[in-house]
Amino acid sequence: MIPFLSLKDINAQYAEELKAAAAEVIDSGWYLMGKQLQAFEAELSDYIGCKYVVGTANGLDALRLIIRAYKEMGLFQEGDEIIVPANTYIASLLAITDNGLRPVLVEPDIQTYNLDFKQLESKITPRTKAIMVVHLYGQVCWSTELEELAEKYQLKIIEDNAQAIGAWWKDKKTGNLGDAAGFSFYPGKNLGALGDGGAVSTNDAKLAEIVRALGNYGSRKKYHNDYQGLNSRLDEIQAAFLRVKLRHTDEENKRRDEIAKLYLEHISTVNLILPFPQKTLTYDHPSHVWHLFVIRTQHRDKLQDHLRKHNIQTLIHYPVAPHQQKAYAGYFHTSLPVTEAMHCEVLSLPISPAMGDQEVEQVISTVNAF
Ligand SMILES: *Cc1c(COP(=O)(O)O)cnc(C)c1O
């Protein structure tokens, strides 16, 4: 059986280091807001080349807190609009609506599955305050046009970097491209904790300071509350695990890249569309870190059955678009044909950094036999 992603196999590679990290935290007697968090924040900010990193309880909170902080700064107000890709994971929208702002959905480019930049300008209204870019499936979503548009209309760019830690655009990494970024360390992400975790990155000192206060009950000084904040902190034990795993993120991304190259080179079935990575840079500067390897076919369900019968587990990212979810019933009438078609056709093949070449070959030959 080839599992979609075996977290056990991934973390087994670092078992000794992880156990030592856990023991250090247990023995320290200090479990929140301590040395591990401080060290992880410094190491992650070094890694992405960004001035400030603030740990949060999860990726959704990271995005929620960025928007909350802009509201506290007086830059966003309830009812304002944020442009967001229609085919993203629902968390991107939840961060917006939870703050009382309105997500304005934009269709993806059908080759990259990332925001179609050409459609952006027509979606901007006097109430538009930001564009949330999502580096979906691990592929950087950025362009000079996007920067110019944000400049022209004075919009913030918020990166949802839950899926693309380690990806680059020119000389910068994702998480350091926009005004602020949210990271997720959900166990299955490219940098996964052994539980929930997240972070905000930014070069804006004021924003970082407010995010930190908001995530700690709106408090800067114990028992003095400046905001109606929430409790969203990254535990010491998760920070300690993440410090171990961050040291291996580049080599894991490199293995993902090797597997993706094998799939791209050797999968050859008619009626099957392979990912179309933007001109890939080098191993040192990848524009795609292959969080997911997503193929598209009109025979998706049959292909998934075929793979299942041959003991290969696949997943669908995502089976239902956010605007078709019950949670967003108000958006049902929206017509987003590219997004809707994608959700019926996409299939994610296993692309775990712990996969061996034989398993990769087995996936390739089984897909090709379809
Ligand atoms: C995983 C994910 C999130 C949310 O992260 P959590 O840590 O699960 O809260 C947000 N956006 C995208 C695109 C994601 O993939």
Overview of the structural elements:
This protein is an alpha/beta fold and 370 residues long. It is built from 12 helices and 13 strands. Helices cover 37% and strands 15% of the residues. The chain has a 7-stranded mixed sheet with strand order 1-9-8-5-4-2-3, with helices on both faces. A hairpin with a 2-residue loop joins strand 10 (219-221) and strand 11. The radius of gyration is 20 Å and the shape is globular. The protein binds pyridoxal-5'-phosphate.
Notable features of this structure?
370 residues, alpha/beta, seven-stranded mixed beta sheet, two-stranded antiparallel sheet, 13 strands, 15% strand, globular, binds pyridoxal-5'-phosphate
Strand content: 5-15%
Q: Characterize the main sheet.
A: 7 strands, mixed
Structural class: alpha/beta
Widest sheet, order of strands: 1-9-8-5-4-2-3
Low-pLDDT segments: none
Average pLDDT for all residues: 96
Question: Helical content, roughly?
Answer: 25-40%
Distance between the termini: 18 Å
Number of helical segments?
A: 12
Rough outline: globular
Can you list the ligands bound to this structure? pyridoxal-5'-phosphate
Rg value? 20 Å
> What is the chain-wise order of helices and strands?
HHHEHEHEEHEEEEEHEEHHEHHEH
SS elements, strand count: 13
